[in-house]
User: What shape does this take?
Amino acid sequence: MYDAIIVGARCAGSPLAMLLARLGHKVLVVDRAKFPSDTLSTHFVTPDGVVRLSNWGLLDRVLATGCPPLHGMVQGMNGMVQGPNLDDPLTLCPRRTILDNLLVEAAREAGAEVREGAIVESVIIEDGVARGIRGRVGDVQFEERASVVVGADGRESFVARQVNAPSYNEVEGTTSGYYSYYKDFEATTTELYMGGGRAMFVFPTHDGETCLGTEYAVARFPDFKSDIEGNIMAGMESVPGLSERYARATRTAKLMGFMPHKSFYRKPFGPGWALVGDAGYYRDPLLGQGINDAFRDADELANALDSVFSGKSEFENALDAYQQQRNGATAGIYQLTALLTKDLDPTPEVMAMMAGDPPAAVSAG
Assistant: This one.
């Protein structure tokens, strides 16, 4: 019998497992992947995310992998380019093959049991309460039970579907895009350009490579797909300095695409279950906040569950506070992203929001 079973071992699940195990709780984390393993990602770790890595004792490990330390961001909005401010706090853009594997190992070192290549086939529900999971590793079936089952299994969360987690504040997806990795693309920090119905990203990452991405309004998908690299080049030519660097670069990996997906909040807890990371809250990847969201939620949920397991708080009270904290922390970026992705052509009002004007709150649903 575990205190917590966590389904999903990437940027939300492994930190949560690590933190709970460090607090003395018995944790099992399972994932269908075997690590190191890649996944679609913006790569961007914000200053808040970097601080959490430091607090967890993992920042030096990430930097030791050769992940370049970055400061500031070049931002171009409707042709107006600004930055970078090299005095800005540290950011990172690690390859997920490296970051996720490091997080999995940190969870193991903390004492969590990590079961890779594990396919979860059902959440055990008894009298309306989640009690555990059934699944298999290869042909070997297993059943495990816990006080809490946590879905850290992404936006298509199997756990969320099994427990019928309600969603709210949904926003239809309006963008698609492609990204890949390039060598010999000169970049010293992250870059984001937006306007004219497209957005372009520059993320310096491991091994001297740079992740380059293009996002565009979904109505353009048929045209874009007919000549992906030609359309990427056309986007680069719209920004002075990008096309020259792109022309000198060599693509080193396949082009990876993503289709539109609705943004949403899900209620992140119920009888015997909880959700963390993209399983509980997802927004268009335009502003690169996903890893930071996962780290923050892992921290907050670990504290909430620790208070429950130690008898300091009732489950409902502790997890309701977790939900309110998450909603308050994400209200502004959620609203801003929804406005930006309508047409990827920011208005002066939206640009003012990006400069820091206070957003409206998000209800708890």
